[in-house]
Amino acid sequence: MFFTWIYTLSLLTTGCLAITQNNIDYMGNSLQIKVKIVDNLKFDGKKHLFHVTLQNIGSETIPNSGWTIYFCSYFLIESLPKEGGVVLDSEHIRLNHLTGCLFSIEPVHGFGEIVSKATKLLKFYGRNWAVSKTDMPPNWYVSSSGLQPRLLNSTSLKKSNFVADFVLPKQWKRYKKDVYNPFTPQQRYNRYKINDLKKPGKLIIPTPKYIRINESGHVDLTSGSWRIQSEQKFKKEAQILSGKTGISFGVGNNSNTRPKTISLISNETLSDEEYFLYISSNSEYISINGKTASGIFYGIQSLLSLIDGYTMKKLPEAEVKDKPRFEYRGMHVDVSRNFHDKEDIKRLLDAMAMYKMNKFHLHLTDDEGWRIEIPGLPELTDIGSKRCHDVSEERCLLPQLGSGPDTSTSGSGFYTRDDYIEIIKYANDRHIEVIPEVESPGHARAAIKAMEIRYKTLKKKGQSNADYYRLVEPSDTSVYLSNQIYNDNSLNPCIENTYRFIEKVIDEIKSAHSEAGQPLKKFHFGGDEVPVGSWVNSTACNALKVEGTTLSGREMYKQFFAQRLANITRNKGLTLVGWEDGLMDQDKNPYKRKLLHNDEILANAWDNIWEWERGLYWATRFTDTYKSFRYNAEDLYKNIDVRVSGKPISRTEVCKADDSECPKLLKPQNIIGMEGNLFSETALNRTYFDSMIFPRTLVIAERSWHKASWESIADTKSRNLESLRDWESFANSLGYKELHRLDKLNIEYRVPPPGAKLRSGVLVTNTEFPGLEFEYSDDYKKSWKSLSANYTTDQKLLDYTAENLDVKLTVIDNLVNGSASFKLEIILTNRGKEVIREGSWSIYLYCIRLIEPFNYPFPDGYLIPKSGLRIFHVGGSLYRVSPDQETFRSIKPNSDLALRFFAKYWQAARTDTMPNWYIAADGFEPRIIRSTADDNLNFVSDFNTINQWKRYPEDKYVPFRPQTRFAYNDEIKDLGKPGEPLIPTPVTINIEESKKIQIKKEQWRIIKSNDFPEEVNYLKGLSVTDSPPADFFILFVKDIVRINKMPISDEAYHLIVNESSITVTASHSSGAFYAIQSILRLSEKRSNWIEVPKVEIYDQPRFSYRGMFLDVGRNFHSLEEIKLLLQVMSSYKLNRLHLHLSEDEGWRIQIPGLEELTEVGSKRCHDVDEINCTLPQLGSGPFTNTSGSGFYTVNDYKEILREARRLHIKVIPEIDMPGHARAAIKSMKRRYLKYKKTGNMTNANEYLLSEIDDPSQYLSVQWFNDNAINPCMESSYRFINHLIKQFKQLHQDIQPLSIYHFGGDEVAHGAWIRSSACKRLMNSSYTINSVADLKEYFAHRVGIIASKENVDIAAWEDGLMKTKTDPYIVDSIVKNPRHVYAYSWKNLFQSGSGDHAYVLANNGYKVILAHATHLYFDHPYEPDPEERGYYWATRYTDTFKTFSFVPDNIFANNHLTTSGEELKPEQICKNHCLKLEKPENILGIQGHLWSETSRTSEQMHNMIFPRLLALAERAWHKSEWENIPDRKNRMKAATREFEDFANTLGYKDLRSLDDIGIKYRIPPPGATVENGRLKFNSRFPGLSVEYSNDNGKSWKSAKQTPTNGFASGTIKLRTRYIYKVLILGLIS
Q: Looking at the keywords, is Hydrolase present (predicted)?
């Protein structure tokens, strides 16, 4: 159907010097290629002259031999192919043809070296012509035998300027009769001869058969409670409509036309794809009628089109009656020549569905590639799906079409079976049939080569059936050359192996379709362009006898092949499809229909149809959207227009005066539809793919669905005039509406160049699609300016807006769309006296949910309805809203502007909103909007309704009322004193509270201890003596402490306190230290002494690991805060501080040698290029003076380590990777740019963490698309190696580094999927087969690096799991004796991850329980919208919940789903509960504070305390109630024990926290009024409750309530402790 070739230049001389890899590498970087098409006209299109210039731009000399350059052209060069090649004496080279488009050149005597800065000019003749830059594909490369090939960088796809401009007619014309010239702007201006209607001309594309619009009446889909009502059979379509509109749906009877209902109604009187759409404003009712789901689906597309054209707010009254013109409305895409992944395909399918196209013809195989996995025939994808430099073609096919030397380009790739099933399912959901094409018998080279490798492999193994699927006859000496210059691309139709192969392929594809839920109906066998000469010397073919045919030779074999495939497909219940020449002989006569024994044969007629190939123009010189629009499907002769040369041609010239040469269509019923086609030779990436298809596909949709009235007009002039009027409407629709809809699908459609001319000295412009914007440049394209907009901004405007713009954010409705999205409103009010005018300013705001998820992504912004503002996702939680040039007017004084939109999931808490929104514009200082500079978030409206505080309809949680809290607290009796002497509870304690020992510094002495010198020094204020006094002394004894039957512990201690002495016995310093902590916790301060009760304690911890995790990456917390936390941790015998030092939002540790990490990564500020800092997140604002910025210096970190060592706490540093690494990635990119600027590429690339041009698309859980370190780049591991070495150095001599935590969690799906580095790694590795294997590879590499430093590694559980149920094999990560520590946090049984801790432990990991439901202190204390914290794992976690955690039985902890519903036993354990086989691998538990909402020290304290005390209790002490199997009885017993714990907090331990400045959370009081009397209580008895009945003007103790009760009104209550107050809310 078109012609493709590659040429290879191999520059060698006869006397060879040894060439090295360094030579090849140098040439890749320094040999600059320039191609110039010189002349097409000298030989009148028979051949063309082109020049190739080789320039050595480096400083070394390029040898005169030993290397080869490979390149591609679409036209034959010189007189090849010829055996032995062709010597070009004047160039001193020999040109040889390999296969297809691949050529090589060997220099002959006289070629010479290319010294530095020198050039060589090579002159060649190519067959036919070359008139486009894309006639010279990119990615030329150089190679030498035994060495690695290298891309010639100057020709890479990213540098397509290696082909010189076409500036002369002899360059751009094909031959002398060619009338085409490139359009000038003036010519375009004259071609775009339609009016700008200033609005869409067609309300729906494709055009309906009947449409009536009444704009005087409308419905408002945003008002009230609209609902979609659907019959059961249309449930899926209802879900689609609900997802697009945010309107909830239900399934049931549709007999009633209830107001505010969109009804999907079955109507059996309609045809299969027909639909009726009614929008009634009077009854506020919308109905879509259809016989089938397809009809309903198309009605929905029309409704959505109307919504996009108007808005949901003002949808006009309408009536649409519609059905398609053709049953077949298709798009054909070739993925074999250049592969396009499933995401590209899915975007195309989305667009096809939107425009009611229903057939997707997927061209899966060709000479250049096989793109679908066939189980049982792995060679098809192992070899046939790859193109690389392998002359033997044993690993891959040779490069073609500019695919370059390796498998990292679109020349390689395939769909796994799962991918293909996913595509089918995706298409099926959109009412699109997938029609697979497997090209045969021609265009089959990829299959042939793959099956030859299979044959050789099996033959070598001695298997007798090696040739079972062999596709060629080895003795066949037929000589042929295909249009694409292959001599080996025709499989043999005369051998049975061929049909076994085809049946196998069909069966596997059919199986995939069945599994996907769309049974295979049609199989496309290709059949086109079988080369002349194929099979003429085939013994099998010469012996073939075919009955009933007059054909012979190739034509007979082709017909025989078609007959066999017709039989095969008939037997499998399939329709056979083929290109027209596969079903016709060489004289264009179709095969007799009776010879093809299949009830239905479909033919793709292409010989007079447009083909959208980027730069290929054999059928026509160009095909624009207007040309496709004018296509007449029912009278092909009306399409006669111009010759290939561009000269006009009349119908009479073609058909003769009597139409004798143009036969009439006798069976119009056999024309079943239309299909657009993209053959992908030049579609080398997603951008080219999209731009070649769109917007022309919309025309295919239009013509295949709708027959225009002008198509039936016989007179050409009248027909053209009417079609132009129709085109005017269509083109305005594209510019003003449809292209914006494609934007929402993230489709990179072609934007037409503008037309322009000077009129009376004034520049006037137009465009093919009115509505597109114009820009101009007057500085040679350095900068661009709008032709129409006059946007001005100054500092005064920013200052005024920041000071006077009042922001009010309100959650309107969480329940509007299930759990999918919620509705949000932001009111912007101008409180000042000036106008806030349009300009280039943007307001930056934060949203932790994805805004407009159903329209995401929106690279050009989402126009918020009726606001005139566009919202853009900057990244993470950061968004910006900017004035829309067309629709924004201004915000006048005392006026407001409403922004209403949807966001993903829900917002049920005030702290989901972040403060410090700001306004900024290029060139000016940003300013924080004062109304949002409020850490109390008063600019967020109260959550007063169930639709605001519930997350979704199934949410069982409601905010606690005082009465609810009163009943909850009533379980805890007020003991009037501490319930326990000591937290955490010792193993045994014998205490005499009444006997107090006074320890006075002038009386008591400490006996010096050589065993525990630091512990002696910890007891400040007492003198140390060498000789024991008779009494009043503290003695330290080193000895093993044995407690009952418990295992011996290094942390055990025995403490005896009596009237005259204190004895501490311990075997290790940690035990002695914890004994001291017990003394201090038991003591009470007096004026100048302390009192300690007489006591004896035997004690040791249940777990060796008792940890607290703190995230300082998202919000930084100071050195002083860390030291304070360490102090409290040690007081409660916690011994691990897990310090989360890096995140997407910040890097917090100085690393010598990588200064950029703190210069850039530790700061957040407004810097859109992120050169000096990363962008603001989580309310950090535009400046660096907030908790968004900060880091620990080397000295700071060492001080943390010293303090931790003193307190017997081990610090575990975490640097999160490969995900959650944006701050590091941006920092190292800054380093790269710094060194690149100086030309030092070695340093630039040394620690680079991301591939600069990686096109992979993903979105992390926190909405970043650039936060994953590339695991396929060696520079990533140099970075990690440097980190570990530096951490080891920091810890050395203080607290040796024993564990390095690399994070590993939440790597975004889609990361690295298109990375060329990863493709190279996977192609070179036997163990890495897909992107899914890269996480394990990363962990393995980190393990190797750490092991070399004698350091263990740790990670979050998802960084160590291959699947949801299977972890990586420990030995694949590290080798004995090194360990891997797994932090298990995903204990949501309803999602199937509840038992991961046991899975990991049983597989040899050392496990720390980090369970989110009980141990994540970033979650709220109550299910109240005013409580701080995220709530994804559980709606709330109070102190009792942490206290009641059962570490030894993880199945005992979760009894509720995240919505608050009871978990069923089968939800927790499925068939059975996994047994913990290696309990010794459960090392301990850890509490966590992720700091998204903790910006201040008070907020941090509030979230950690007092829950940390409950954590310490469970980590140190195992209670008897933990062993009670029945949950109800266990919780009763736990509550009884918590009573003592709570009284201890209220009467003692909270006071201790006060003493050291901890700003812990005070629980709100419980209260109720009975008979006018106020009754109150607290969760922690000992706290006082106060009331106010004058709206907070005065407060009184609740114990002093009036004896006669309260009059009607409102009572305010608050809890008070020392100087801390928490206001509760209201009681009526």
A: yes
